[in-house]
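Weekly modeling sync, notes
Attendees: AB, CL, MP (scribe)

Item 1: holo prediction request
CL wants a bound-state model with adenosine-5'-diphosphate before deciding which constructs to order. AB pointed out that an apo prediction alone won't tell us much about the pocket. Agreed to run with the ligand included and paste results into these notes for async review.

Input as submitted:
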Amino acid sequence: MPKSEKTPLVIIFGGQSPEHEISCITAAYIYANLDKEAYETHLVGITKQGAFVSAEPQPEKLSAEGPAVDLLSLLQSSGETVAFPVLHGPLGEDGTIQGLFDIAGVAYVGAGVLGSAVAMDKRVCKLFLDHYGIAQAKWTSFTETEFDSSPQDVVQACVSELGLPCFVKPANMGSSIGISKAKTEDEVLEALKLAFKYDPVAVVEEAIVGREIEFAVLGNEDPKVSTGGEILPGAEFYDYNDKYFDGKSSSVIPADIPGEAMAEMQQIAAQAYKGLGLSGLSRADFLYEENGRGALLNEFNTMPGFTPISMYPKLWEHDGIAYAALIDELVALAQARFAKVSAKRITDVS
Ligand SMILES: Nc1ncnc2c1ncn2[C@@H]1O[C@H](COP(=O)(O)OP(=O)(O)O)[C@@H](O)[C@H]1O
Ligand SMILES: [Mg+2]
């Protein structure tokens, strides 16, 4: 394909979240594996301070360093540009940068503003899932203001409603950052303090004794759902170190669960994906309570880990979609969504 026919692809990585480093790793793999003939690629790093820089390709891990770049001008330099926000966590996966793409008038990979924001906020996401009657762990939530005014009352409410142990999480975060499994009242108190370091809202859940089954979802209005894979955490739960550093966790594809359970989770994943208004891609994570309530939906990740050893691309590879083809499909989905959204952007009413 001649250069001029290549699709301009702006990969944006790094970001102002504790998941900055993970994003730098994911982006290096995406760049290394995408079809260089098909895309005119620009790498834009967001530093931890929030500056946009033009970055160089690096093997294994990009770094958000380089000369300043005017992201808005770059995005708008061609009518064909597709933005690929390879960003995890707040200010990346939560609808904020998606708003910038909407303002710029460019196609982008993944969920839009609302879907990203809803899926990112564990409290709001749980409210939606309850609304659709989708089974999940029992949960409650508190604001930092409520906690500060009466910490012991909040701890008591968690213990009486959910029992011990319980999981305490910041409403907006990822990669298990700020999450604790609390086994005593004192630990619940400490866990809440930790969660409020990251977000003014904390979500508390009953601890599920279950298996972690994950599904890759791909599509816009009519998404397809992959075979499920199982995470076998190497630590007491699938925490930050276990996810990225210890390497003790492992995965099994397909998950060794009954066919009906697999099919039920696939159906729930598609229903929830549509209900949350997601598009592009997402990983649906379940806690599967064997001999109990069965499938409990834990969360959606709208920009899941994307290295070739990450669950999301591995699930599609198992189902016959190779890594580079997956990127092509994501770009095509971004373009399709953009065409639909743009058609409804009406500036004059006559
Ligand atoms: N209610 C729960 N019961 C049992 N384990 C849980 C529960 N909530 C979270 N976990 C464990 O903690 C991990 C991280 O929690 P999760 O809600 O997925 O947060 P994150 O968005 O940071 O990935 C899960 O992968 C799982 O191992
Ligand atoms: Mg998770």
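Recorded for review: The chain has three domains: 3-108, 138-206, 209-340.
Action items: CL to compare against the apo run; MP to circulate these notes.
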